[in-house]
Amino acid sequence: GSLPKWVVNKSSQFLAPKAMKKMYKACLKYPEWKLKHDPHFKPWLFPEQSRLPTLALSELSLQHADS
Q1: In whole angstroms, what is the distance from residue 60 CA to residue 67 CA?
Q2: Mean per-residue pLDDT, 15-22
Q3: What does the pLDDT look like over 28-52, one tens digit per residue?
Q4: φ and ψ at residue 46, rounded to 5 degrees
């Protein structure tokens, strides 16, 4: 379904800025938090640190938007 335009407008006026303020505050605290929680664990920089299971390429399949 679709949302009424007034709902989208109100949420973009009030909810989005509130969420961005919370995210900004959390981002400011991240460096201090990261120093206490696995400071050398950075799988976004070092993929070999990833703890996620790997998938074989044979298990992957191409999907199209119309399917």
Answers
A1: 16
A2: 94
A3: 999 999 999 999 999 999 999 999 9
A4: -125, 90
Q: Which of 23, 39, 43, 21 is nearest to 31 (CA)?
A: 39
How confident is the model over 16-22, as a mean pLDDT? 94
Distance CA 57, CA 20 (A): 38
Both tokens assigned to 28? 């400011």
- What's the pLDDT at 36? 97
CB 50 within 8 A of CB 43: yes
The three state secondary structure string of 6-60 is HHHHHHHHHHHHHHHHHHHHHHHHHHHHHHHCCCCCCCCCCHHHCCCCCCCHHHC
